[in-house]
Design goal:
Layout lengths: L5 H17 L2 H7 L1 H23 L25 H16 L5 H5 L8 H30 L11 H10 L3 H38 L17 H18 L3 H30 L4 H25 L1 H33 L13 E7 L5 H11 L5 E8 L2 H13 L8 E5 L5 H12 L5 E11 L2 H7 L3 H9 L5 E9 H6 L8 H10 L33 E13 L7 E8 L2 E8 L12 E11 L2 E5 L2 E4 L2
Amino acid sequence: ALADYRLVLIFVAISTLTYINLRGVKDAGLFFVIPSYLFIGSMLTVFAFGLYRFFDESLPKFDSNQPGLIEIGDEKLLLSFIVLVFILKAFANGSASLTGLEAISDSVAYFKTPEEKNARQTLVLMASTLALLIVGITWLAHQTQVIPFAIGTPTVISQLAEATLGQSTVGDFLYYTVQLATTLILFAGANTCFSAYPNMVKIFADDGFLPKRLTARGHKLVFSNGIIFLSSTAIILVLITNGSITALAAIYALCVFVGFTITGLGMFRHSQRVKPENWKLIRIVHGASGIAAAIVVLIISTVRFADGTWLVVLGTPLVILFTLKFNKQYSVENTALEVKLNETRISNITRHDVTVLVAKVDLATMATVRYARTLKSRRLEAVHFVLDDMQAAALLEEWSNHPGLSDIALQLIDCPDRRLTNSVLDYALRATEDLDVELTLLLPNRIFSRFFGRLLHDQTAESIASAITQLDRVVATIVPFDVEKILDGKVKLVPSTEEKVAVVNTKTSVKPEFESPVYEPVGHHAKSGTKIGAIQWRKRAEVVGRVTGIRVAPKSSAPLVEIEIWDETGGVRLQFIGRREIAGLEVGSTLKAEGMVGELDGKLTILNPSYEIII
């Protein structure tokens, strides 16, 4: 009855798998434990009933005299050609059941220590379970002479379960349990791609054969872009094949055995080149596995071509061309950005000038000027390119009368051809005629809503910044100002009297605070220490937190290593004076530190604490 809603159910399943895997490896693993054990348990129940009814001689046999059955073979010949084709097709279908074993090798890093031993034991257990299921289903199919349907339902497993479990209340319950378990295990099997595919494309992307954004991890430490790319591709395949399990299984099996072939032959070549201990035996094993997998690829791609493998056969050359194009593009870009040996020593810049490009006096301009003052430049000036004389005169008067801008002269520059970008480039070239001058152009950028902002306002800042990149010793910095937050009421322009009083009062507080992000508890190591959010100024504290940032002072300055650690309550800065590095410490490590809590630049700081790297 649900066959008519096949596409809808598949789309829901893909969306669910995508969401679960975006939650992280741990959440995904827990979700798929139940379907796996439910399917194994339900199939063992079917085997037990089948064995009992076999010895009880009550195991039914299916009637072979049914319309639609085709008798193949010839009494005079051992095998006819059509029989050989059917055997090869059955072999290709059976090969699909072996897919999934490769997920163990792709996920060794996720196992507990010792990873290799645990992965090896899991692989043996998984292969043994798979062998038991295949032998059991094959034996029951042989004993009952079940007849597979070429298209549609019921499946062989459904027919075997119905025949062995019988027509009773208990039998019906167990039958529907088998059906549910079979459905769930198919979706759980699809999760193999979500656990292995993002890692694989990450490796390809690292080498430049796929877009680099596929190497980025999300906040749950999974390759989010790879997961989304996989789910999008899966939906396209489902639409092309109309959700046919036969076609999708053939495509999946062919892709997996292509991987087996490449791995086997690649390891054959590797062992021949490296020559490890017993390399001749290893070479024979890898070569045999590669050849066997290649034979399976040939069989599947031939006998299942019409079922869907044509997509792989015809699409693989196109994919290879695209990956080579990506790699070539990355190589060209890397060559263009490569720093030559004689250019590694950058000439010293003795003069740094800052110019604020002004269109009007508003909050965005004031924020940009405020930022410009912090740059400590040799010269700070404001420039307006005149496109309208009356507007320029009004702007100059408003600028001169503003008390916060009185120390900065506004320079008006003519723009006769009304090409603003060209005028900015000309100004930058003139300002950097001397080789020891570095110019920073600050461009106020007012951010409006995504759709109407693009429609109602120009993108002058982006176009100027893009053009400036072609100049040496000129940097264009866009200073964003979110107008939309003001319109939504998320930002108040003028604080109330109460807020002003509160700000004044907070200045008398000795303990500054971080704006704490959300972090998970760091574990049992923190039980004996103090929560970072509870530490006090001028008191000793023992804290445990996760390292979120490491800053090492440049070699030209005094040795200093600065670290930020966070727990679920807050963060604190640790400073190690006189050191260039801390061996074994990296971002993401868990660190225990003890020392006196002080203050530096408004932040709580522990100077030269004693420490222990826990993880």
